[in-house]
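User: Let's play a game. I give you a shape written as tokens, and you guess the letters that built it. Ready? Here's round one.
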């Protein structure tokens, strides 16, 4: 059989009840056990039985409360037994009525372990029963008799003590309720601010994407490419390494637009972006920097290694035509590429300008080819 453990989250009220019940058990049970032992020594068997029954009931009720069973209902039997014990002490208090003073602990116990209104009713009812026992004192065997003055003084002290404790508990609960309300407002404000931060972060990310990305192809735009080119030039100059910059232009792109329409031209641009992305490495940088112009940065790739990459790019474009978005007919086209290797004294503008000159040479030499500068 599989035993599943359930994790409970205690409310603040349940935590307070547990702590108060634990204090009652920690202080009351040892005192009751000691009281029961002393009663047994003095052969007061009824008092001894009441003391041990009350202590056992308190422990059992505390265990039920600790297992989160029945809440306030779990502590009522313990308070009832404790009240019965105290009323017995009132009835049989001895000539000096020392035991009667234990009844003054009942307002504290009932107020701390029960809701204020219920605790007040319990304390008041217990005082009425105690007053009745005092008035009936001496009329049955072994009972103690009380003077009217003692009963009056005791009732006043008991009433004042109960009133102070109940009012203090009411004030405490009001304060806790106000504090919970403030905490709820703070939590709501925190959630609102967290949501606003998340929304702002998402908006900033979207703005960053729009500022660095070409909306049609999803590639980097010119600004983002130039920033990455500047960073790579700095790195290569520090490491004394070389890389290659390519400028690619689709041949006769205006004719594609005129013959097939601008949607077909857009489809060709998206197709070229996909082809180039497929052929390049993850560390290479690809951007659309103009209408039909693309820029490529072959990271850590000098001119002699870049020649094969350039040929592969041109072959892919020649043999993989785009598809017309409406008729789904193939649209064949070619491209020209200008190539240059980075120089130690380059900046991003000079490197891209050389690649652009090389592209011009490739165009003037008949297109569908590449040239180096």
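Assistant: Ready! My guess for every position:
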């Amino acid at each position: 059989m599989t035993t599943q453990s359930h994790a409970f989250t205690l409310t603040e009220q349940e935590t307070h009840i547990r702590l108060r019940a634990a204090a009652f058990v920690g202080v009351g049970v040892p005192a009751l056990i000691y009281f029961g032992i002393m009663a047994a020594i003095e052969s007061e068997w009824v008092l001894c039985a009441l003391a041990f029954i009350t202590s056992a009931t308190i422990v059992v009720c505390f265990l039920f409360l600790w297992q989160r069973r029945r809440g306030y209902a779990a502590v009522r039997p313990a308070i009832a037994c404790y009240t019965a014990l105290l009323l017995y002490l009132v009835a049989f208090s001895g000539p000096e009525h020392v035991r009667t003073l234990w009844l003054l602990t009942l307002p504290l116990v009932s107020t701390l372990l029960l809701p204020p209104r219920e605790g007040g009713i319990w304390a008041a009812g217990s005082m009425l029963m105690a007053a009745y026992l005092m008035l009936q004192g001496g009329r049955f065997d072994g009972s103690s008799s009380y003077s009217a003055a003692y009963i009056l003084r005791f009732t006043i002290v008991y009433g004042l003590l109960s009133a102070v404790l109940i009012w203090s508990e009411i004030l405490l609960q009001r304060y806790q309720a106000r504090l919970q309300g403030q905490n709820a407002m703070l939590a709501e404000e925190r959630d609102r601010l967290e949501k606003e931060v998340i929304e702002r972060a998402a908006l900033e990310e979207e703005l960053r994407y729009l500022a660095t990305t070409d909306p049609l192809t999803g590639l980097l735009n010119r600004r983002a490419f130039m920033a990455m080119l500047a960073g790579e030039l700095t790195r290569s100059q520090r490491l004394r390494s070389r890389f290659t910059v390519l400028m690619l232009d689709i041949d006769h792109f205006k004719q594609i637009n005129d013959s097939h329409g601008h949607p077909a031209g857009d489809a060709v641009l998206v197709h070229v972006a996909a082809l180039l992305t497929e052929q390049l490495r993850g560390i290479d940088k690809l951007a659309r920097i103009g209408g039909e112009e693309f820029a490529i940065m072959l990271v850590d790739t000098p001119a002699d290694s870049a020649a094969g990459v350039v040929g592969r790019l041109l072959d892919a474009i020649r043999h993989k035509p785009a598809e017309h978005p409406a008729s789904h007919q193939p649209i064949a086209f070619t491209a020209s590429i200008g190539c240059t290797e980075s120089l130690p004294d380059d900046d991003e503008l000079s490197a891209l300008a050389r690649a652009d000159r090389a592209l011009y040479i490739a165009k003037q030499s008949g297109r569908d080819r590449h040239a180096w500068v």
